[in-house]
Design brief:
Layout (H helix, E strand, L loop, with lengths): L1 H29 L3 H12 L18 E4 L7 E6 L5 E5 L4 E5 L6 E7 L8 E7 L2 E6 L4 E4 L7 E2 L2 E3 L9 E7 L4 E6 L10 E8 L4 E2 L5 E4 L13 E8 L4 E8 L2 E5 L5 E6 L7 E6 L5 E5 L7 E5 L6
């Protein structure tokens, strides 16, 4: 009887140890690798809220690409009129081009006169019947739409910005009746870890000294090769009432609230070589232009997702 009791006790202990060992082994095999944890954390860190403007577009599927004529190899900014006409410009001269958004064909071109004829232009905006264009040094020109082949006068407005800021995006902000200028480089004194967007008031026709938006670089998605997010275009989304900022360097798109908070971000590595311009058509279609870079210049069309 005594021997049997010892045997039973030994058997119970062995079974217990075996169960513990199996449990540990199971937990160890089920635990994700360090790489999996990092991936899961990255995916969970930047989900797109259902209410965001970015969530209304599908960035996982190839967009419809419209090929542009070679004379638009250096295509930069984009702007659409309320009636759905699309305008762009070359970044090396004052030629304004109306493009067929569906085919890429040039509908007409007109030229800016005088001092606006040969500048480094980086963004265009349309406010009702007023056209605006900015240089990389932050100089703004205002002009009226011209007829095909016409040369039109342009009024010049200086700002406190310079080539050190390297302006690469321009859009109209209807919430404050101002033009917004996105800085590719320096955000300004005291803002070394930020990317800045400044506002040029259309009421006073002067630059507002304090940035409209200050975006922490650490919160902006870097490119696949680690290159920093450097804005190349900006546009207001009238449906979500937020701002979309695209970056050729960093190959991503960030959505910003009117208060300057980052609402969401998506990568553009798959389908874009050098995203320079951005705008929205009246039906909500998102357009992003890419410079040629040895291929054809293009405009990518992202339609709105179907309503659920």
């Amino acid at each position: 009887m005594k021997t049997t009791s010892y045997a039973r006790a030994f058997s119970v202990i062995c079974c217990g140890l075996l169960a513990v060992a199996c449990g540990c082994s199971k937990k160890k095999s089920e635990a994700p690798s360090t790489e999996s944890k990092v991936e899961a954390k990255t995916e969970a860190a930047s989900p797109l809220p259902a209410s965001s403007g970015l969530a209304r577009y599908d960035f996982s599927a190839p967009p419809q690409f419209v090929t542009l004529p070679s004379e638009l190899n250096e295509i930069s900014g984009l702007a659409a009129t309320p009636d759905g006409r699309l305008f762009t410009h070359n970044d090396e001269n004052g030629t304004i081009t109306e493009v067929d958004a569906a085919t890429g064909a040039i509908r007409k071109e007109f030229q800016l006169d005088g001092n606006a004829g040969a500048k480094d232009f980086e963004g265009i905006a349309i406010v009702e019947n007023r056209f605006f264009i900015t240089t990389s040094a932050g100089v703004i020109f205002e002009f009226a739409e011209g007829k095909a082949g016409e040369t039109v006068p342009a009024k010049e407005y200086a700002t406190a910005l310079s080539r050190k800021n390297d302006i690469e995006g321009l859009c109209y902000d209807p919430l404050t009746n101002a033009l917004l200028l996105a800085c590719k480089e320096r955000a300004g004194k005291g803002f070394d870890d930020m990317k800045a967007v400044y506002a040029f008031s259309l009421d006073s026709m002067k630059l507002i000294p304090q940035p409209r938006f200050l975006l922490p670089i650490a919160q902006l998605l870097p490119g696949a090769r680690g290159d920093q997010f450097n804005p190349s275009g900006i546009e207001f989304n009238s449906r979500s009432r937020t701002f979309f900022i695209v970056a050729a360097e960093g190959k991503s798109l960030v959505e910003v609230s009117p208060e300057g908070a980052i609402v969401g971000q998506v990568k553009l590595d798959k389908f874009h070589r050098q995203a320079e311009g951005i705008t929205f058509m009246p039906d909500g279609t998102l357009l992003i232009s890419d410079e040629a870079r040895g291929e054809d210049p293009t405009i990518a069309r992202y339609p709105l997702r179907a309503a659920p």
